[in-house]
Request: fold
Amino acid sequence: MAGDDANTPKDFNECVSQGQLQANIDNAQKDMKEVATKAVTAAIMELKLGEIIERVDKRVSTLTDRVAALETRQPTNENDASNIGGHPEDVVYNAHHNVNQAATRQAWL
Reply:
């Protein structure tokens, strides 16, 4: 029977309406969502994902630039100036002892 159970309120003042119960549930869910959002945001900030992504983006950009330079580079034999025209004594080398084609062409002109 209702009211005989030890957990059942015996007084009407101890009861809550369906609307009050739903409002309490909604508030509790809202509070839990805010706490979870703050915790996840703090965890992401602590991981410094933004900085990591920025570094990866810079590295990919650098690699892309290098690949583009290699794709547009004309094949040469570093020790044979005849592959790019001109005389061996007119060849310009870069710091890595590779033929600098642009500087060599400019020197010939």
Q: What stands out?
A: The chain has two domains: 17-73, 78-109. The radius of gyration is 37 Å.
